[in-house]
Amino acid sequence: MSDLTPPPGSRMRAEIHEQPAAVQATLETATPAIRDLAGRLRREGVEYVLIVARGTSDNAALYGLYMFGAVTMKLAATAAPSLLTCYDTQLDLRKTFVLGVSQSGKATDVIEVLHAGRERGAITGALTNTDDSPICSAVQHVLLTHAHEERAIAATKTYTTALVVMHQLAALWAGRSDIADQAQRVPAWIEEVLRLEPDILDHAERFRFMETCHWLARGLNFCTAKEAALKMAECCYVVPSSFSSADFMHGPIATTDFGFPCFIVNPTGRAYHSVGVVVGAVEAHGAEIIMLSNADEMLQRARIALRLPAMPEECSPMAAAVVGQLLALYIALEKGLDPDQPRGLRKVTQTL
Amino acid sequence: MSDLTPPPGSRMRAEIHEQPAAVQATLETATPAIRDLAGRLRREGVEYVLIVARGTSDNAALYGLYMFGAVTMKLAATAAPSLLTCYDTQLDLRKTFVLGVSQSGKATDVIEVLHAGRERGAITGALTNTDDSPICSAVQHVLLTHAHEERAIAATKTYTTALVVMHQLAALWAGRSDIADQAQRVPAWIEEVLRLEPDILDHAERFRFMETCHWLARGLNFCTAKEAALKMAECCYVVPSSFSSADFMHGPIATTDFGFPCFIVNPTGRAYHSVGVVVGAVEAHGAEIIMLSNADEMLQRARIALRLPAMPEECSPMAAAVVGQLLALYIALEKGLDPDQPRGLRKVTQTL
């Protein structure tokens, strides 16, 4: 056990704790624009979704991909910006909704894809935290998160609020107000997860010398594995490796030797059984399991058990992401690193 | 320099060397079926491609995604099998071509998605190395690679021949016989890469204690980075980390400290300049660069330079993959591991 105390000046910690309020504000203010867009997508019979994003926003896009698939029943893909920015691909994008995700609203390659999408007949939208940013003037529909300014390099509250907007859009597009309504409880579920903080602080010392690890999940929480791995890369300089648990069985499991740290995200839901099979496989390799779940059966099999709230699977990525953020924050501090200032990164990254 | 001699009994080494002949045989025998399918996709005005695969085949799918985008100008996506196998998503797949990739032809989740695709109006195809396998009876169009039996666990010749089939299908669907014809020279280009073997054997000792590394590329060769990282995971138990070089700049570059090994794939082509920017960034971090390129400017900036043939960008992933295979093979041998028998893996992996 460490006697590390929460750093009072940490911007990342402050922003992690702002998430219940940020989600609440986003739910209260973003709904009219989401409803407007959802109605248009239904009226115009849009059949395909193309999401374009980078970094943390690309993990939010991955959540959208599953939500638009599993809830809205539309074929959704994440676009490789290079197809349009390097390869000048002339796609026919009628009947397609192209959504760009960029918290800063300044991701140049994302904006370029949105311009191309509009020229080729797509309905375009921007999911951003920054009103009046360049991405807003590139699209027909602006969906704003209301996370207020995010100052830490590692994105936290702009990620969870982006998930909330995707959740609402997918649910309203599908006409599933029952699913849309579930999000009202997300602030409370995140509050519940934030109460794990002292526990995570206690466990952080164990990972002082961890240099690499796996993050595993499947389906709706695949984005959680990827985002938590990215947070650990950015803040802790741990080399990230995140897999869909099904892909993991097709090769990467070979890297898992005795004691290898495997962080597994497996709340109850439709991917639960499938991820459970992988838990058995990494147990057989003698791996150390750190489990994020709300199922006793999963938590009992872990070296370190981090309990998620009982909640619908569609909302679980918003709560599970917060556990990943807290782990990245406190492991970084144990390593003597400043998670607010990762080396080599700036808040806005521009690639073409 | 190591005095390691090539292992005469290694199945993986033998199969790496069989690739020029396997590609030649595939080009000679697969064309009628590819031409037949390409004609149908044109006639029926198919607008979307959904590729479903796991493991190495998923990396082949990634190549297809760029080829169907950049050459055929169709919106292509890789499907998450879990959307259909776990979430029971009811997609409308008319005007969509669903392609399953499985060398063994036994990937149960891939087959399930193909069945679902056919029910929902898609044209379905199977890209496999195994005639009469279950995947063949699930689809309307069978595209066979002619790599003969692959016995090593780590896929090599079934990967490069799958790329050749994707290349031909994308080119013929687009009516681009100029691009299709380029593949005739792939066997010779692979022969040229195989002549790097003594050089790679010499360099392998340097990586005896390498535990992790980055593989970076973009666009058409993003699949090369992912596949080489997977080979190193399977054969060398190196924890793989592979990125689109653009995504890499949005976070993971923070993990790259002085001397960190970065394998970069950057042949000339439309992604060349963009990847070059990332080379500058990892140089600034003091990383060790191992470069796969056919451009002097790139090779001169590397600690270890592995020269690719001068070749069209569309074919370069087939040659560059072989460099990754040879690196994985000889680094595994330096580590005292048997690349023919990675722990915890079998030739056919079944996930649901």
Question: Can you walk me through this structure?
Answer:
By secondary structure, the first copy, chain A, is α/β, with parallel strands linked by helices. Chain A has 2 domains: about 10-185, Rossmann fold; about 195-335, 3-Layer(aba) Sandwich (Rossmann fold), CATH 3.40.50. Chain A has helices spanning about 10-15, 20-45, 55-70, 80-85, 110-120, 135, 155-175, 175-180, 185-195, 195-205, 220-235, 245-250, 270-285, 295-300, 315-335, and strands at about 50, 75-80, 95-100, 125-130, 140-145, 215, 240-245, 260-265, 290-295, 305. In chain A, the strands form 2 sheets. In chain A, strands 2-1-3-4-5 form a 5-stranded parallel beta sheet, sandwiched between helices. In chain A, strands 7-6-8-9-10 form a 5-stranded parallel beta sheet, with helices on both faces. In chain A, β8, α13 (about 270-285) and β9 (about 290-295) form a beta-alpha-beta unit. In chain A, α2 (about 20-45) runs parallel beside α7 (about 155-175), α3 (about 55-70) runs antiparallel to α11 and α9 packs parallel to α15 (about 315-335). The model of chain A has no long low-confidence stretch (mean pLDDT about 90). At the A-B interface, α3, β2, α4, α11 and α12 of A face α3, β2, α4, α10 and α11 of B.
